[in-house]
């Protein structure tokens, strides 16, 4: 017995990836509906060996549907997710609208699966930012062993994290730099992204942090431990898919790099690629299409008493977004709905 599934935002990069992953993982589906904005009605998207035609999200009746996976912007999520929840459909939302709501569980299944028990409060479950999904998967097993006090995090986030128009801007700017008179001015980003890095993701807040940086801190504390202190700098890089993070982690107890490496090798959702030689690490391009979060460059940090440095990489469209939401749906089926 399967589920009646809705994928909202089915024409976007994350929505299409969710449909692919639902099929790849053989999620039990009785019926599936692909929803999009009015301008995309009739657009065809793939689901395994089937082709779905997108339906209009405006006016869609969510009654009788079990799970709705929302890969939409915040405005669309605010407009339609509550209606779906009121109709009895469990919403798994990736927009960030409800990620800090105390009545909405924020879940990365490898880290805090038990939080799914609170899903019935609002019938809404939040998925975190892609940067947080890979971060907490890497930190959780180390925190369990040595208790994390502080994390200094720098993210290197790809343009696909900002959507299709952002990817087009990188492509067109890159081409334009080689063709005189065809230069492309920034529209999706505050500065040129081609052959550049931009130390801003999200609008600036009063204290000088950006919204993305603030949200990473808030979501990590909610998922992992509110006592952990975090300092975050988010950087947009000229990469299409795949994102990386540099972590400096300070622990309460001493943790040797060899033990940390062994712990991470045994942890769910992680792959350790860490050789002290040229190329003995993972870069974003190698993570594309993979489910795992990769950890490399594990080494002691001599500047603090109990510190480690790590390099963490994942496919932001897969583990960062689509896979995590499908994993939440699997968890929901197994622990709440009872059909999985």
Molecular structure report:
With 340 residues, this protein is an alpha/beta fold. It folds into 2 domains: 3-128 and 321-337, Rossmann fold (3-Layer(aba) Sandwich); 131-316, Dihydrodipicolinate Reductase, domain 2 (2-Layer Sandwich), CATH 3.30.360.10. It contains 9 helices and 14 strands. The strands form 3 sheets. It has a 6-stranded parallel β-sheet, with helices on both faces. Strands 10-9-11-14-13-12 form a 6-stranded mixed β-sheet. A two-stranded antiparallel sheet has the order 3-4. It is globular, with a radius of gyration of 20 Å. The mean pLDDT is 95.
Q: Could you provide a short overview of the structure?
A:
31% of the residues lie in helices and 24% in strands.
Output the keywords.
globular; six-stranded parallel beta sheet; 2 domains; Dihydrodipicolinate Reductase, domain 2; 340 residues; alpha/beta; 31% helix; Rossmann fold; single chain
Summarize the topology.
Layout: E1 3-8, H1 13-24, E2 29-36, E3 44-47, E4 50-53, E5 55-56, E6 67-70, H2 74-86, E7 90-93, H3 109-112, E8 124-126, H4 130-146, E9 148-157, H5 164-176, H6 211-223, E10 229-236, E11 243-251, H7 257-266, E12 270-272, H8 284-287, E13 293-300, E14 307-314, H9 318-337
Parallel strand pairs: 1-2, 1-6, 2-5, 6-7, 7-8, 9-10, 12-13
Antiparallel strand pairs: 3-4, 9-11, 11-14, 13-14
C-alpha Rg, in Å? 20 Å
CATH superfamily of the largest domain: Dihydrodipicolinate Reductase, domain 2
Question: Uncertain segments of ≥5 residues (pLDDT<50)?
Answer: none
Strand order of the largest sheet: 5-2-1-6-7-8
Work out the count of structural domains: 2
What is the percent of helical residues?
25-40%
Question: In the CATH hierarchy, what is the class of the largest domain?
Answer: Alpha Beta
Overall SS class: alpha/beta
Outline: globular
Give the name of the CATH architecture of the largest domain: 2-Layer Sandwich
Q: From the 3D structure, determine the CATH topology of the largest domain.
A: Dihydrodipicolinate Reductase, domain 2
Q: Give the tally of β-strands.
A: 14
Order of helices and strands: EHEEEEEHEHEHEHHEEHEHEEH
> Roughly what is the average pLDDT, rounded to an integer?
95
Number of helices: 9
How is the main sheet built?
A: 6 strands, parallel
Distance between the termini: 8 Å
Strand portion: 15-25%
């Amino acid at each position: 017995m399967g589920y009646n599934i809705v994928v909202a935002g089915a024409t976007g990069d994350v929505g299409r990836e969710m449909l692919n992953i639902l099929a790849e993982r053989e999620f039990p589906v009785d019926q599936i509906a692909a929803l999009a904005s009015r301008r995309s009605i009739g657009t065809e998207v793939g689901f395994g060996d089937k082709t779905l035609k997108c339906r209009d999200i405006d006016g869609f009746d969510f009654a009788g549907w079990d799970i709705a996976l929302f890969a939409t912007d915040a405005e669309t999520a605010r407009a339609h997710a509550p209606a779906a929840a009121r109709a009895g459909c469990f919403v798994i939302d990736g927009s960030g609208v409800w990620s800090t709501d105390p009545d909405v569980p924020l879940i990365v299944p490898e880290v805090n699966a038990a939080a799914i028990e609170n899903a019935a409060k609002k019938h809404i479950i939040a998925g975190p930012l892609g940067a947080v999904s890979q971060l907490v998967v890497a930190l959780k097993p180390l925190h369990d062993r040595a208790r994390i006090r502080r994390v200094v995090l720098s993210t290197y986030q790809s343009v696909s994290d900002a959507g299709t128009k952002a990817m087009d801007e990188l492509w067109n700017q890159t081409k334009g730099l080689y063709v005189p008179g065809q230069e492309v001015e920034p529209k999706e980003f505050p500065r040129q992204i081609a052959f550049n890095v931009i130390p801003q993701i999200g609008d600036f807040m009063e204290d000088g942090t950006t919204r993305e940086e603030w949200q990473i801190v808030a979501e990590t504390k909610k998922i992992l431990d509110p006592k952990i202190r975090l300092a975050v700098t988010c950087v947009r890089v000229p990469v299409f898919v795949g994102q990386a993070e540099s972590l400096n982690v300070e622990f309460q107890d001493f943790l040797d790099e060899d033990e940390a490496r062994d712990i991470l090798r045994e942890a769910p959702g992680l792959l350790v690629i860490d050789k002290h030689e040229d190329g003995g690490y993972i870069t974003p391009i190698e993570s594309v299409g993979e489910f795992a979060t990769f950890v490399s460059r594990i080494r002691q940090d001599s500047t603090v008493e109990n510190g480690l440095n790590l390099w963490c990489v994942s496919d932001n469209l897969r583990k960062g977004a689509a896979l995590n939401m499908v994993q939440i749906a699997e968890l929901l089926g197994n622990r709440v709905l009872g059909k999985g």
